[in-house]
Amino acid sequence: MTIWVLSCIGVMSIIWLIASIVYGKPIKLLPSKSINLSLYENSLADLQKSYEKGKISAEELNALSIDLKKQLLEDSTVNASNNQYQLTSNSHQFSHFLIVFLSIIFFSTSSWFLYQRWGSLDGVAAYQKNIALGEKAEIAFKKIVIDLNNQLKENENDTQAWYFLARTYMRLSDYDSAIVAYERVLKLAESSSDLLSEVAQAQYISDQYSSSPKVVKYLEQSLKLDKNHMQTLRLLGQIALDQQDYQKAKNYLERIYVQLSDGDEKRQLKRKIDELTINFMAE
Q1: Segment (H or E) for 34
Q2: pLDDT digits (tens, 9 = 90+) for 38-70
Q3: Are both 94 and 223 inside the same structural domain?
Q4: Is residue 92 within 8 Å of residue 23, measured between CB atoms?
Q5: CA angle 151, 152, 158 (to 5 degrees)
Q6: Of 73, 88, 118, at which residue does a domain stop?
Q7: Quick one: 101 and 171 in the same domain?
Q8: Does 94 lie in the same domain as 53?
Q9: DSSP state, 263?
Q10: Which residues contact 75 (CB under 8 A, 6 or more apart)?
Q11: Is residue 82 predicted with pLDDT exceeding 60?
């Protein structure tokens, strides 16, 4: 988050500089104590030098000279030790500081939100790198699809080619095509719980995450072959959660829990089971 804050401070500095340029202009001298003739002559000489150096125009020189004469005649008060020009008028100073104050609020808040959304700048770089890698991977997967389809033109009963084609379509999020390839594998090879759960997963996603009759059929067939197949139990647990059947979801997760070795995954699953128990008791 430090990098975000430093970046925003840099932007604030630029805004401060722009505000100074846009709103800044020389104005009359600061008032303070009694002015005398000597101070008037010195001030007038300073104005003349500023004019000769091109810092002020002839009109400004004339106007400021008149102001000095008025102050001398009226015995006004000025600050002899600060005989210089202000950068901005009171109203412009107010606008200037208001801009800076609002900038601090805005960029401080922005820093927090940027950090929450993107993390550190290193995290942003990693995210962008992952996008680039994802784009390259998609190109590679599409090439694999072309190669596998060409291979299947030569041998349409190549079970392994159909299976790899189904898995590749899953990586490309082309679930309908994946289902077609998976079903071809089911016709050519002996069914297994792994294969049936993968087809069920593809069908579940293709059906907009709903438990359609096909999804249920594949999951039931999978459990007949292996009643403790964890991938199948996970999908059944998710479907039960979708239907807010917390007791059934809890039962599926408990069947997975007893098969896991001690570790983070088992502890996380235990917390999920405890949450489901609370939800079930609250019904």
Answers
A1: strand 33-34
A2: 666 777 777 777 778 777 777 777 777 677 666
A3: no
A4: yes
A5: 105
A6: 118
A7: no
A8: yes
A9: S
A10: 34, 35
A11: no
